[in-house]
Amino acid sequence: MKQKHVHLIGICGTAMASLAGMLKQRGFHVTGSDHAAYPPMSDFLASLNIPISQPFSECNLQPHPDLVVVGNAISRGNPELEYVLDQRIPFDSMSQVLHDEFLIGRERLVVAGTHGKTTTSSILAWLFHHAGRAPSFLIGGIPENFGSSFGLDSGDEFILEGDEYDTAFFDKGPKFLHYFPDAVILTSVEFDHADIYKNLDEVKTAFARLVNLIPRRGLLVAWDGHSNVDECVGRAFCRVERYGFKEQSRWRVADVEYTPTLTSWRVLRDGEPWGEFAFPLAGEYNVLNATAAAALAANYGIGKDAIAEGLRSFRSVKRRLEVKAEVHGVTIIDDFAHHPTAIAETLKALRTRYPGRRLWAILEPRSNTLRRKVFQDELARSLSVADEVVVAAIFKSEAIPEPERLDAAAVIAKVHAAGKPARLLDTADAIVDSIGPELRAGDVVAILSNGGFAGIYEKLPARLRSLHEVSTPA
C-alpha cells in the first residue's frame, strides 16, 4: 500500500513540529515548510529526518501530498496555501488531524488555562509514565524528563496541553475545542492573546465552551483562586473538584516550605490529611500546578505514594526557570513568562529559590499581548518585584498600531516610581554591554521572553567570561 504523504505548512511551530514527529512515528511520509527554519524545532525535525523546505513555495508541494496541514500562523496570501486552495489539495488544521489520527478511542486528559498549562501537563504526563501507565502526550514545551514535546505509547490516556489560541485561517475557534476531553484541569483564566480576543469576556467564553464539552461522566479539576475560573466552571455538567488554598476546596494546599533546592507542601483531601509532597521546582504557582496534576492522577487510580515519587523525580520544562549559565557567581535564568501575572509569579519564585540575592528582570516585550498597552500598569507592578529592571525594544513594534502599542518608557517610569532602578535598552547587544560590567557574584538575572531575544542567552554569559578574563591578571 502506498505510504500516505502529509505536508505541514509552518512546520517549525512547537505543536506543528510535534505533530510531524507523531505522524512520522505512525508511518506517514512527512514533509514540511517554513519561512525560516529555526531551533529548537528545526534541530528536532532534522533528528527525525523530516525535511524542511524554505522559503514557502508552490514547488514544495510537488508532487501533490495526500494531505496538507495548515499551521495557525499561516494566512491567505501564503504561496503554498494559495496553491493548495487553487488545486483543491485536501487540507486540515493541526488540531483536527491530531483528533482524527491519534485521539479517537483514547481517554483524553486536557490541561487548559492562561498560565501553567505547559508545566502542569508535563507533570501529569510524568506522573502517569512514572506509575507505569504508558500515556501518550502532546505538550507545548519540552519536559526535561522526556526530552521531547510528544510521546506515543500504549496506554489508554492521551495527555494534551489545551491551547486557547485559534486553530487555522479557516477555523478561528480555540484549538482545545477539537479535543473533546474526558477530563480537564483548568489552571487560570485571564485576558491574553490580545490579537485574537477582544476582551476578557471572549476569553471566558472560550474556556466555558471547553468546560461544556466534558461529558457527565467526566471530571473538571479547577483552581479555586479566581472569580474568572468560578464563572467558567459554574455550569459544568460533570463532577467538579477544586484545588488551591481555600478551606472548602477538595484538594487544599497547606504548609508550603521553600529551600534553595526543594519545595515541599501538604495536601488535604476533603479537609483530611492526604499526602506530603516535594519537588525541585520553585514557586507557589508550581505547587498549585503539581497539586492539580496530583488530583487528576489520583482520580485515575494512581496512588499518592506513586504521585509523591513522581513529583520528587520531576525535573522541569525547558525555558521554565531554566538555569542557562552560572558565570563567576552570576546565575542566568531563561523563562518563557510573557504575561504580567506570569512575570510576577516567576520573579516571586526566584525570590524563594535565591533569597537575599540581587534579582534582575530583563524583559523583551514580544507576545501579542505584551506588545500592547492593555496590561501596561500591571506589567510595571510585576517587574517591580525585581531589584533591577531592563526592558528591551518592543519586538516588531511596527506591527502594532501606535495607539494600541505598549509605551515602554511609561513602564520604566512606573518602575522608577516604585523605587526600583529601571532602564530602556533597545537591543540584546546594548543590554549585554550595559549590564555586563555591573553584574556581581550572587546576582540572579531572569531573562523573560517567549522568543530567541537575539541570542542574549549566549551573549550575556560570554560577555561575563570575557570581562573576568580581562580583570584577572595573567
Description of the molecule:
- By secondary structure, the chain is an alpha/beta fold.
- The chain folds into 3 domains: 5-93, NAD(P)-binding Rossmann-like Domain (Rossmann fold); 105-312, 3-Layer(aba) Sandwich (UDP-N-acetylmuramoyl-L-alanine:D-glutamate ligase); 322-471, Protein-Tyrosine Phosphatase, Chain A (Alpha-Beta Complex).
- The protein is built from 14 helices and 23 strands.
- It has helices spanning 14-26, 41-47, 79-87, 94-103, 117-130, 200-212, 227-233, 284-299, 304-312, 340-353, 376-383, 408-417, 428-435, 456-471, and strands at residues 5-9, 29-33, 52-53, 67-70, 91-93, 107-112, 136-138, 150-151, 157-162, 166-168, 171-174, 183-186, 219-223, 239-244, 251-258, 263-269, 272-279, 322-327, 330-335, 359-363, 388-391, 422-424, 444-448.
- β1, α1 and β2 form a beta-alpha-beta unit.
- It is globular, with a radius of gyration of 23 Å.
- The model has no long low-confidence stretch (mean pLDDT 94).
